[in-house]
UniProtKB/TrEMBL annotation, chain A:
InterPro entries: P-loop_NTPase, Small_GTP-bd, Small_GTPase. This is Small GTP-binding domain containing protein. GO terms for biological process: protein transport; vacuolar transport. One of its GO terms (cellular component) is endosome membrane. The keyword Nucleotide-binding applies. It is a lipid-anchor. Keywords: GTP-binding, Lipoprotein, Membrane, Nucleotide-binding, Prenylation, Protein transport, Transport. The lineage of its organism: Eukaryota, Viridiplantae, Streptophyta, Embryophyta, Tracheophyta. Its main location: membrane. The keyword Protein transport applies. PROSITE patterns: RAB (PS51419), RAS (PS51421), RHO (PS51420). Belongs to the small GTPase superfamily. Rab family.
Automatic annotation (TrEMBL), chain B:
Plays an important role in membrane trafficking through the secretory apparatus. Belongs to the MON1/SAND family. Residues 1-12, 126-142, 480-491 have a biased composition (Low complexity). It comes from Parasponia andersonii. The lineage of its organism: Eukaryota, Viridiplantae, Streptophyta, Embryophyta, Tracheophyta. Residues 353-447 form the FUZ/MON1/HPS1 second Longin domain. InterPro entries: FUZ/MON1/HPS1_longin_1, FUZ/MON1/HPS1_longin_2, FUZ/MON1/HPS1_longin_3, Mon1. Residues 59-71 have a biased composition (Acidic residues). One of its GO terms (biological process) is protein targeting to vacuole. Residues 193-313 form the FUZ/MON1/HPS1 first Longin domain. Residues 514-614 form the FUZ/MON1/HPS1 third Longin domain. Residues 1-30, 52-82, 118-142, 480-501 are annotated as: Disordered. This is Vacuolar fusion protein MON1 homolog.
Amino acid sequence: MARPGNKIIQAKLVLLGDMGTGKTSLVLRFVKGQFFENQEPTIGAAFFTQILSLQEATVKFDIWDTAGQERYHSLAPMYYRGAAAAVVVFDIASKDTFIRAKKWVEELQRQGNSNLVMALVANKSDLEPSREVDTEEGEEFAQENGMFYIETSAKTAENINDLFYEIAQRLAKACPSKPSTMNLNNEVQHRRKLFCCFG
Amino acid sequence: MSLDSTSSTSADDSPDPASPESVESQLGSVALSEPVAELASAANQVARNGVGFATASEGGDDDEEDADMGGEEGPVGRAEEEVWADYGGVGGLAAAEEVGEGLGGGGVVWGRTNSELEVDEPASPSSSGYAGERGSSGASSGELEIGEVVEDEIQEPRSDGVDGVLDSQASWVPGKRHVDEDDASVSWRKRKKHFFILSHSGKPIYSRYGDEHKLAGFSATLQAIISFVENGGDRVKFVRAGKHQVVFLVKGPIYLVCISCTEEPYDSLRGQLELMYGQMILILTKSVNRCFEKNPKFDMTPLLGGTDVVFSALIHSFSCNPATFLHAYTCLPLALATRQAAVAILQDVADSGVLFAILMCKHKVVSLVGAQKASLHPDDMLLLANFVMSSESFRTSESFSPICLPRYNPMAFLYAYVHYFDVDTYLMLLTTSSDAFYHLKDCRMRIEMVLLKSNVLSEIQRSLLDGGMHVEDLPVDPLPRSSSLPSHLSQPKPPTDSPERFRETCDWIAGPAGLWHFIYRSVFLDQYVSSEFPAPISSPRQQKRLYRAYQKLYASMHEKGIGPHKTQFRRDENYVLLCWVTQDFELYAAFDPLADKALAIKTCNRVCQWVKDVENEIFLLGASPFSW
């Protein structure tokens, strides 16, 4: 895969978002080219790998597909710590998931990793008739927070590859010289809280 | 009257139950000896909420509450009857005040002993002592106008539900059913076995059938009953209402309730509720209690989002996995060398900081290793395997998920790395460290390499195909045992299709002396082995009935005050059941109902010998000690 002399970037990518927004479907479409109408909810987090070759670099993704259920929220830092890229997903047909996505973005920004490549993904674009979140609204929020915005459909595969190519490209740009050191060791002290609701 | 046995043990402060010659006389007898306002209002609410467990059809057959898909909407005709239970099963009616408003008044049996509410346990587990039978005989002796409606219900088409016919393991579809039902639905009320989890403020957390949110009123009623008794400094264990048994389990702010007319013993149902609670702890840890300290009205359902399948799979296993009542685990039969290879590599990994390394095939253990001094309770293993197997997500890719082992440490999460090697075989590596994923991933790759190299994975598949111990293979003559020893499990069986052999098997249908099935539980190993099911018990429904019979046997053998040695021989129209409990093992065996007693006993001895002969292959021996 890797072209000779081409640099290799090992990048940890985390998917965040409310349950049922299609995080697992996005990944399965990207990694395996599959789509299941009734994808079962993820438990904890599932791990995938995928390699993308660009002109300037080869990006090896370590993908953490996290569970959207509330009980896993407080465990999210365990998965997004040290990530080079974060994909925050919402469902265009559900305002609630957009609100939840905004909270994820805030949480990620509190972590203060300025190099983090962030994408705001409006998934289920095939559900246009029941859309609840306008494109402008999503774009505006993304822009304000230094993310890029893209509308995808894991079902029709629309924009799925574009999403990951865009991330790969940004990673390649952001990390011109050093290969395979996306601050994986730069780990913040892990929070011991079990649930967000426990205090 | 046949109901005497019921009422005789009921509470001392309950009025003498009138003979149920007519509904009127029953209703007349409802007066409480002590005024119990809250309880009455609870009962009142029961009535209003439509708590009527219509007489579920027994049909003389095993229940099929898993199988009753659809098919329920059949002839009904008593939607308006609010009955706690059928009129037949009666008892000292102590607390159902509001019968007048349509609560059929049949038989809420409340009893009260000094410190706990304990109601009407059958005096002996003899086969004629079950509530259901009393109920039906009562119905024939006493009454009444609903008789024919009951008949209608009995005839509802049950067994042709989805899994009634097919193989249980293969066809049981996980997940919650009948979400559209609530406590007003007749079909909901006819379910034979309900499970509820609710909070101490009465908020529904889980219900086996129907949408939890729609069952808020019903949950509140259950909560009212529990807290009424608790306010009196008592604890409610169960309530018997005709054929129905309502079993309560209070775990801090979490209440668990089972309402069942399956005639399972109280101890069994309580054990099942304990497992339900354990499953919840496995997902959330016990620190969920803190949420209730902060906010008593805390709604827990979002925290359990997406775990319906886990609970419904567990409930399903209550009737098809003996581990749920034996508190032991079972191993996949494997040649000693194969298992040793698997144990060795897991041991290697465990030494590198993994707390538990478990290789399983479906619900059977291939090998299992714990770090020094760490021991795994069989119930934890059951719950963990159920969690992993019922969550489709683990099959998609390797996962890293927080889980809690309730018997190991109910307060803390462990982290589980889960990976499926093939459709049936999966590896679980448990650790206390939340950032051990990459290490565990490396461990898995090492393990996978070794397993492939030593053919363990293909041996597992082969064992799965061959099955375990078949009663037909029980060595007839105890002497040439040693010569035939290696062949029992791993080699092709004697030609089953040869004519003589066929004639022979016709004689005893399955094993010698009419042996149909057995379960052998090793006390020291906390492991059991269960024989494969022969032709007479081939359908899931028959298997479930047998497990229920074993479960009943188990409960009766483990009642308090039991000596170290005990046997039980019991014959009914379905089986001869023989149970033998010693310090070292427990044997449960089922024979043809016509089996000869002396021969059956002899056969049990041979089974024990057979198990000892092949114990290297069917048990995991000499692994890290399992003491707790």
